[in-house]
Design brief:
By secondary structure, the protein is mainly alpha-helical. About 60% of the residues lie in helices and about 5% in strands. Helix 1 packs antiparallel against helix 3 and helix 3 packs antiparallel against helix 4.
Length: about 150
């Protein structure tokens, strides 16, 4: 899995391809998420250990806009809604969609955007601890001088 770079320095296409990969990964284990033989905790572990690493590959270098954050959160909530199943009203026994607040209550781990932010902070800490001669550190702290040619 590589990184998609555009001349506008946008990660929109990269996130689109990452979400396609995440959907493909989810659909490969979809039978497990619909199985009534597996507990919800085991389904969440499958999501965390199989699907989430595919989506979060290279997320340390992303500069997310609100639009991309929303797309990632929509992906996560779609997968979690499939894992937790429909909401059933105790009085009328009608099924409905789980809303954001109920998903946050049921899924106690940090959401995907918070995971990305913590990974970015951990990466920044690793870069800060690197020696000055390392290429990553030189690129991150470099201050360009002069004017850039056309």
């Amino acid at each position: 899995m590589g990184t998609n770079l555009t001349n506008q320095n946008s990660i929109q296409e990269e996130i689109k391809s990452i979400l396609k990969s995440g959907n493909a990964c989810y659909h490969s284990v979809q039978n497990l998420s619909y199985s009534s033989l597996l507990s919800k905790n085991l389904k969440i572990q499958i999501y965390r250990n199989i699907i989430l690493p595919v989506v979060l590959n290279g997320s340390e270098t992303w500069s997310l806009t609100l639009r991309e954050e929303r797309r990632l959160w929509v992906f996560e909530s779609r997968v979690l809604r499939r894992i937790f199943g429909p909401k059933r009203d105790e009085v009328t026994w009608q099924c409905g969609k789980l809303h954001k607040e109920k998903l946050n209550y049921l899924y106690t781990s940090p959401n995907i955007v918070r995971v990305i932010i913590s990974r970015k902070m951990r990466w920044a800490e690793n870069v800060a601890c690197m020696g000055k001669r390392r290429g990553v550190c030189r690129v991150s702290v470099r201050k360009p001088e002069g004017k850039r040619p056309l």
